[in-house]
């Protein structure tokens, strides 16, 4: 593939993000940009691929601006950003060069990949003077205003992420200055959220302030700060100038409920060479969790109590550090260290990965040796062959067959002279069996055999790969018999791997025409799967009497789902489109697949994420009743209490009780506990239920759920609802514009059956489509598939909505599939707007025919 280097780089970045970053909106945006960039690169649309790479790079910078340059998150993003820079080696500059040529002698602003301190993107403004040989020259403001000499800035086209014509406002900032990304826009999205501000009024001192953001206005921010250790004193409102804010981050409101964050720092002796990063293994009840360190620190999210064992991976020349610790359940954040100690560790043995090899003359295979123990100080080994006339072996263990016969490959350790060996039998190909001739019709597409069978000198048979050619032109696995002509037989030549031999394949042609394929369809067009589940798809070739029925299966996202011969296997949470393509004609059919994790059953849960008042809070216990399997007259008394995240102070008496029996469905929490509320709307309230008034920490003894109580008028901006549409197949493929979407309040109907038509106003004039009042947002897609929302009919309030599409005729959308990010099996169409939150949906339309 032309852009393999680019695609592999992006896949590696994607893998690191999935392994290191917690699931949240920022992570989703990063992975979405990468996936779209990879897909466009695969399709050869490198310009669109780099439009998403540019977005990815900019997002890295914005995320870094919210964190301290010393924190692990910032440094991890810096590593990813540096890796992303390698992708720019593949960036085509021809189009960029043409666009810039049209702006000669005009003022422009460029964003480059060069990062100044604090990770701010350098937006450089100047007058474009020259574009030549991959270089541009900008006339920047001269430091001496009375000088007639222009100060020139020279930049490589390959280092320019994007550019825009500069406005007058840009020029007032000073040509050539690096203009910082303003914090105001990002901070305004966090009103009423608990955040941490990093403030510096000098070059040497910096402070951090944690509190609830109240207001961002006129160059100032207001933040409400709780008085330390003073529960009954009103929070203090402080005001800071935005000019002094050097960074900010959204705080974790209490961490993962019911879990503890365990940070393990790896230490090494000074002056001793060692690897930069290692794996740390946490073992609990014989189950291992492996996390690679970032800057020497591994972070685990684990159960809050119990015994765990921590150990580092084996490193040659060091004792393996092992530590057993006991988590008490009283802490939310625990720090530990693992210290590697240098030591002279003798070699005790060596093991080869294979004991026997069979090689064809001229072929090679690599052996690998593992020294025991794996952390032995001296890892040096040597290789030798008992007969180099039969087989040779390199210093890296690569065995090459020279002539027929038998030889022994021996590996020896430098320390202790420990050995292991592998027996090699070298054979030759005695005969390649000619493939059976194929009979075909005129116009028929023939799928050629991928392997041929060969007979070896030891009488064994082996399958060897073969590539075919006709008239000196290499074939791509198929041969199409010409429709016209009077040739009755075609002879193809096959080159067999591991040999210099060739074979022939005869295709005999009958004097009648093949029935061509005109279409293909699938029995299933949509499916929601749990991880590890399988789905069998069956294709139907049209017409039924078509001559060539072979097809090719593929998945748009093999990290989410793979497919082999129509059998789909769910691998990881995500969205994939399974495509079946006919060999004859290249016709396609699609199945949209959503893969989600196995949902965790919540025995109790709040019926809403956010309530307008405490009196509305309702706790559902249906799952608990089903789990308990009570007798008809049996009742169980549960104690119940309410706390707010970040505080151990109970907001209720703690002695309140509720009785659960077979008729229990839900209860009003306020009526049972009359719990207190606070003015901190960003924090969650936690409800604990237990049959034990001491509320033991074990999950099976104490149940927990959470909710928020909102401010009187909580609203969400339409910009926080981001939707993108992609269309596959049919007449609209690649043309996602002018498709209508709506965001509507929930109605009393089965979720899976709800469509946009349920919201049509029956009293609208004939021939016109108007929506009822439950529709709060209406928008349509642009040429890139992004939904542009009209002004909302009224302020968007917190709560549940449905996202629906006026799907084009002949297509199906994926809104009825399970959301891979959902923990309880909700569909993609189900949207929950929360304070300061946002939602992002990638909608796919696949063609199923008129």
From TrEMBL:
A Pfam cross-reference name: Big_2
BIG2 domain span: 346-423, 516-592
Organism domain of life: Bacteria
Stored SUPFAM superfamilies: Invasin/intimin cell-adhesion fragments
Protein's UniProt name: Uncharacterized conserved protein YjdB, contains Ig-like domain
Organism: Orenia metallireducens
Classification of source organism: Bacteria, Bacillati, Bacillota, Clostridia, Halanaerobiales
């Amino acid at each position: 593939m032309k852009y393999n280097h680019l695609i592999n780089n992006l896949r590696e970045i994607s893998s690191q993000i999935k392994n290191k970053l917690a699931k949240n909106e920022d992570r989703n945006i990063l992975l979405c940009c990468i996936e779209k960039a990879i897909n466009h690169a695969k399709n050869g649309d490198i310009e669109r691929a780099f439009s998403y790479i540019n977005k990815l790079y900019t997002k890295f910078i914005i995320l870094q601006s919210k964190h301290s340059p010393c924190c692990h998150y910032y440094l991890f993003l810096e590593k990813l950003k540096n890796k992303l820079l390698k992708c720019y080696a593949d960036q085509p500059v021809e189009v960029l060069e043409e666009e810039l040529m049209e702006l000669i002698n005009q003022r422009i602003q460029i964003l480059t990949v060069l990062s100044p301190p604090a990770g701010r993107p350098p937006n450089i403004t100047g007058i474009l003077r020259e574009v030549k040989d991959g270089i541009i020259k900008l006339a920047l403001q001269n430091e001496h205003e009375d000088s007639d000499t222009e100060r020139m800035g020279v930049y490589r086209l390959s280092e320019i992420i994007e550019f825009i014509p500069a406005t007058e406002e840009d020029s007032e900032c000073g040509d050539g200055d690096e203009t910082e990304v303003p914090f105001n826009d990002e901070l305004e999205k966090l009103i009423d959220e608990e955040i941490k501000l990093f403030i510096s009024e000098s070059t040497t001192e910096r402070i951090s302030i944690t509190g609830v953001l109240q207001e961002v206005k006129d160059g100032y921010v207001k933040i409400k700060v709780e008085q330390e250790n003073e529960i009954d004193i009103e929070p203090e409102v402080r005001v800071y100038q935005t000019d002094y804010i050097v960074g900010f981050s959204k705080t974790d409101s209490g961490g993962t409920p019911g879990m503890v964050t365990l940070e393990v720092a790896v230490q090494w002796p000074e002056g001793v060479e060692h690897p930069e990063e290692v794996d740390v293994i946490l073992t609990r009840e014989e189950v291992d969790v492996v996390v690679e360190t970032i800057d020497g620190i591994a972070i685990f999210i684990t159960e809050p109590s119990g015994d765990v064992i921590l150990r580092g991976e084996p490193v040659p020349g060091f004792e393996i550090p092992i530590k057993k610790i006991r988590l008490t359940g009283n802490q939310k954040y625990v720090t530990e260290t693992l210290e590697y100690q240098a030591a002279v560790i003798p070699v005790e043995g060596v093991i080869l990965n294979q004991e026997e090899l069979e090689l064809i003359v001229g072929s090679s295979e690599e052996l690998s040796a593992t020294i025991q123990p794996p952390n032995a100080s001296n890892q040096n080994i040597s290789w030798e062959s008992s007969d180099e006339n039969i087989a040779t072996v390199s210093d890296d263990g690569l065995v090459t067959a020279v002539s027929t016969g038998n030889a022994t490959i021996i590996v020896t350790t430098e320390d202790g002279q420990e050995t292991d060996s592998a027996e090699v039998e070298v054979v030759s190909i005695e005969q390649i069996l000619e493939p059976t001739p194929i009979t075909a019709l005129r116009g028929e597409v023939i799928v050629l055999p991928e392997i041929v069978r060969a007979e070896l000198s030891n009488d064994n048979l082996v399958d060897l790969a073969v590539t075919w050619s006709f008239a000196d032109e290499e074939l791509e696995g198929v041969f199409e018999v010409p429709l016209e002509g009077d040739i009755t037989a075609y002879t193809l030549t096959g080159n067999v791997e591991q040999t210099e031999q060739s074979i022939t394949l005869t295709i005999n042609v009958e004097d009648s025409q093949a029935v061509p394929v005109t279409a293909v369809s699938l029995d299933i067009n949509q499916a929601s799967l749990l991880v590890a589940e399988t789905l069998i798809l069956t294709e139907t070739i049209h017409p039924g009497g078509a001559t060539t029925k072979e097809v090719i299966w593929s998945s748009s996202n093999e990290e989410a789902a793979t497919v082999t011969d129509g059998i789909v296997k769910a691998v990881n949470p995500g969205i994939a489109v399974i495509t079946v393509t006919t060999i004859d004609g290249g016709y396609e059919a699609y199945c949209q697949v959503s893969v989600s994790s196995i949902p965790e059953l919540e025995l109790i849960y709040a019926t809403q994420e956010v309530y307008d008042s405490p009196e509305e809070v309702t706790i559902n216990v249906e799952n608990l009743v089903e789990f308990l399997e009570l007798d008809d007259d049996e009742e169980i008394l549960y104690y119940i209490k309410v706390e707010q995240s970040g505080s151990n102070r109970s907001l209720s008496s703690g002695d309140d009780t509720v009785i659960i029996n077979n008729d229990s469905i839900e209860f009003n929490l306020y009526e049972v506990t009359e719990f207190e509320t606070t003015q901190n709307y960003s924090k969650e309230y936690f409800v604990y239920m237990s049959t034990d008034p001491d509320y033991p920490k074990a999950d099976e003894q104490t149940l927990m759920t959470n909710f928020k109580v909102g401010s009187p008028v909580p609203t969400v901006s339409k910009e926080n609802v981001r939707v993108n549409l992609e269309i596959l197949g049919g007449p609209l493929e690649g043309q996602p514009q002018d498709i209508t979407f709506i965001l509507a309040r929930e109605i009393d109907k089965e979720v899976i059956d709800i469509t946009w038509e349920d919201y049509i106003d029956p009293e609208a004039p004939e021939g016109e489509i108007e929506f009822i009042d439950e529709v709060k947002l209406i928008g349509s897609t642009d040429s890139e598939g992004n939904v542009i929302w009209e002004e909302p009919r009224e302020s968007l309030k917190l709560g549940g909505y449905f996202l629906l599409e006026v799907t084009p005729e002949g297509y199906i959308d994926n809104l009825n599939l399970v959301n891979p990010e959902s923990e309880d099996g909700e569909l993609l169409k189900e949207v929950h707007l929360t304070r300061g939150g946002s939602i992002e949906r990638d909608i796919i339309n696949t063609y199923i025919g008129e």
